[in-house]
């Protein structure tokens, strides 16, 4: 809600109307929108309705009756707006130039907010990428260190094996030589 207000300005909720589709289901159950909202209205929706002074209308989106559609779009909404005393023609006192300037300001505000949001997302992505790259480099470093230790261990084992093989060969030779001397 705060983002809508910051995007469109402080008076955003002064001109907002909440449209509820499925009005035909209310009629089928002999229920009004007020009954339904009083019974099953979630808290976030209640907050939005309060911000726009409970301006809401049910809309029967399944009706095939053209007169009913016209009534919904025209009379119902206009009556609701009149009943709520909402100023429909809020830009009456503005010149075309002022309206154009307001539109430009809104567009610039939207673009600025979009740019900030994009920069924030990009910044977070870059930060995550840097963190992941750092973690990957640490993992590679640890793997290289482990590989180096493993290679050192293999070299040591080879040397030990060669030394053991030499000693075995020397002992055999010594044994063979001593056997020959006894005969």
TrEMBL record:
Which controlled-vocabulary keywords does the entry list? Answer: Coiled coil, GTP-binding, Nucleotide-binding
Q: Which InterPro entries match?
A: G_AIG1 (IPR006703), GIMA/IAN/Toc (IPR045058), P-loop_NTPase (IPR027417)
Q: Which residues form the AIG1-type G domain?
A: 3-75
Q: Which residues form a coiled coil?
A: 122-178
Q: Which GO terms describe its molecular function?
A: GTP binding
In which domain of life is the source organism classified? Eukaryota
Matching Pfam families: AIG1
The name this protein goes by in its record: AIG1-type G domain-containing protein
In its UniProt entry, the species of origin is given as Citrus clementina
Q: What is the lineage of its organism?
A: Eukaryota, Viridiplantae, Streptophyta, Embryophyta, Tracheophyta
């Amino acid at each position: 809600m705060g983002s809508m207000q910051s995007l469109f300005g402080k008076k955003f909720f002064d001109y907002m109307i909440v449209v509820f589709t499925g009005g035909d289901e209310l009629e089928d159950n002999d229920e009004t929108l007020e009954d339904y909202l009083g019974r099953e209205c979630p808290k976030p929706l209640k907050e939005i309705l309060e911000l726009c002074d409970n301006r809401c209308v049910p809309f029967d989106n399944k009706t095939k009756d053209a007169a009913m559609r016209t009534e919904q779009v025209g009379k119902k909404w206009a009556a609701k707006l009149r009943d709520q005393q909402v100023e429909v023609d809020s830009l009456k006192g503005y010149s075309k130039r002022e309206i154009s300037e307001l539109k430009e300001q809104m567009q610039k505000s939207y673009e600025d907010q979009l740019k900030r949001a994009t920069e924030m997302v990009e910044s977070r992505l870059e930060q995550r990428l840097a963190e992941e790259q750092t973690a990957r480099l640490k993992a590679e470093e640890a793997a290289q260190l482990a590989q180096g230790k493993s290679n050192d261990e293999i070299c040591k084992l080879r040397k030990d094996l060669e030394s053991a093989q030499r000693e075995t060969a020397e002992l055999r030779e010594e044994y063979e030589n001593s056997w020959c001397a006894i005969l």
